[in-house]
Amino acid sequence: MPLVALTGGIASGKSTIARRLADHGAVVVDADQLVREVQTPGSPVLAAIAAAFGDGMLRADGSLDRAALGGRVFGDDDAIARLNAIVHPAVREESARRFAAAFAADPAAVVVYDVPLLVEARVEDPWELIVVAHAPAEVRLRRLVELRGLSPADAEARLASQVPDEARLRIADVVVDTSGTHDDTNRQVDELWAGLDEHLARRAART
């Protein structure tokens, strides 16, 4: 019943890896999806966000205005810390519930937590393997501009706001190089899956 953390910087190909692992039978828990779920209208988290940052963070229907919130906190370390203090505990609680449910349903399950902010928030959790999606910054910049429609300046700002690649690579048990084709990334994920027991044993021997 391994619990695997999957992380990577923005536009690093992490979602491609997660989909391939799911194809192999892994139970993938998406941290970004959990964030959206704990911020639904009427939730304590959303109420706390409005109290901390103003009712302007809410749409007319009571849902979170993600663009407004992003604009409010982006580049403001204090605001980001306040937001994280509201959101992270709720996400941690919900993710633990999802992990437990997955293992209760299948004690032999491989549960993968797709979590962008692993280094920032959850690196000390009891992961049995940490997988890092990695591509050079220039590749990710190009993806942000060409595939997501960001301006070069906005793309650079997004990358600069995240922890350095070296911080993620330092904690990696397995690095998947996503700078090539999708087929190349999938091949590496297939190899990871085939050798999962070996990777788990190596990490266990180090810790």
Outline the structure in words:
Keywords: ATP-binding, Coenzyme A biosynthesis, Cytoplasm, Kinase, Nucleotide-binding, Transferase. Its EC number is 2.7.1.24. A five-stranded parallel beta sheet has the order 2-3-1-4-5, sandwiched between helices. It has a domain at 1-26 and 110-202: P-loop containing nucleotide triphosphate hydrolases (Rossmann fold, 3-Layer(aba) Sandwich), CATH 3.40.50.300. The mean pLDDT is 95. It has eleven helices and five strands. It has helices at residues 14-23, 31-38, 44-53, 66-73, 77-105, 118-122, 137-146, 152-160, 165-171, 182-194, 196-206, and strands at residues 3-8, 27-30, 111-114, 129-134, 174-177. It starts with a strand and ends with a helix. α1 (14-23) packs across α10 (182-194), α2 (31-38) crosses α5 (77-105) and α3 (44-53) packs antiparallel against α5. With 207 residues, it is of the alpha/beta class. The longest helix has 29 residues, at 77-105.
